[in-house]
Amino acid sequence: MRLGVFTPLLSKLPLADVLVKLKTFDIHTVELGTGNYPGNAHCDLGMLEDSAALDRFKGLIEEHGFKISALSCHGNPLHPDPAQSKAAQEINRKTILLAEKLGVTEIVDFSGCPGDSPQAKNPNWVTCPWPPEYLDVLAWQWDKVVTPYWVERAKFASDHGVRVAIEMHPGFVVYSPETLLRLRSIAGPAIGCNYDPSHMFWQGIDPIAAIRVLGDAIFHVHAKDTQMYSANLPKTGVLDTKPYTDERNRGWIFRTCGYGHGAEWWKEFVSTLRMFGYDNVLSIEHEDSLLSPEEGLTRAANFLNEIILKETPGAAWWI
Fold it and tell me: d(Cα 211, Cα 195) in Å, to the nearest integer?
C-alpha cells in the first residue's frame, strides 16, 4: 500500500511545484481533479484536444517519478437542472477519456441526486421512509434517473478500460455501503467506491466493519478522519447542517488523519483493507477546518507514512 495526495489542497501551486513538495514527504502518487467540485487546477481536460499539452503533462509526471491513482470529477450528474447535469456528465465523460489516454484505471465521482419529479429545480435527498410519498420519490429517482444514467455510463467507462469509483456521500443517492452495492448490482462491476472513512464515521457506520461489506467493490481510498463531539450530539444529532467552520457547535467535523482516531485504529483500517484485497493508495484529502492545508498535509503524511510502513508485508521484522 502507498500514500498519495488529492491535490486540490495545493491548488495555489503549479503541478510541478506540487510534485516537488510531495516528494519531501516521500509521496509519489497523486489524485488529480479534472473539474466539477474539485476544480481542475492540476489536470486540464483540454489536453484531450491538444496532443502536445498531453505529452508535456505525461512528461512532467514521469520526470518527477509520480503515478496517478485516479482522476476525480466529483459532481452531480443527476442534477434536476438540465444545464448543471449536462455539464457534470460531460466532465465525467471527458475524464474517462483522459484517464484512458493516461493509462489511469480509476476515476472518482459522486452518484448524483435527482429532484423529486421531472419538474424539480433542486436535488431532493430522501432520508426516511415516511410519510409514504418519500418512498415514491425514491423509487422514481432510482428507476427513472439513476439507473438509466449509470447503466449507460458504466458501459462507457468499461469500454474505455476505466472503472468509476463512487464516493459515498450524504446528499446523494449513494451514501452508504448498501446504496453503493445497490448501484453496483444495477450497473455492473465497472462501478465501485472511492472509500472515504470520514463519511462513514458521522453516519454511525463502523468504517472497518464496512470494508467487510464492500469487499472488492473498493476501488480507491481517501485518507480523511472525522471527530465526533459527544457534548453537542444530543442537541444536533448527526444530520448537522451548520457550516463546517462552526466547529464549537457542530456534532462532528472532518479532521486530518490521526486527529479523530489514533494510530491503532488506522493500523486496523489499513490491515483490513489489505485482508479484503485492497493494496493500492491511501489518498490524503484535506478538509480539516482547524488546520491549514500545509498543516493538514504535513501531519497526515507523517502520521500515515508511519502506519503504512508498519503495516507493509515484508517490512523489517524489528519495526
Answer: 9
Residues 6+ apart with CB under 8 A from 211: 195, 218, 269, 272, 273, 275, 276, 278
CB-CB contact of 85 with 120 (8 Å): no
Q: Which residues neighbour 183 within 8 Å (Cβ) at sequence distance 6 or greater?
A: 111, 146, 150, 166, 173, 174, 191
pLDDT, position 251: 98
Measured distance CA(147)–CA(264) in Å, rounded: 40
Domain boundaries, the chain: 2-225+258-311
CB-based contact 205:168 (threshold 8 Å): no
Can you give the pLDDT at residue 194?
98
- For CA atoms 101, 104, 105, 109, the dihedral sign is negative
- Mean of the per-residue pLDDT values for the chain? 96
Residue range 114-141: mean pLDDT, rounded = 97
CATH placement of domain 2-225+258-311: 3.20.20.150
Check if the beta carbon of residue 32 is closer than 8 Å to that of residue 14: no
As a whole number of angstroms, the distance between CA 10 and CA 233 comes to 32
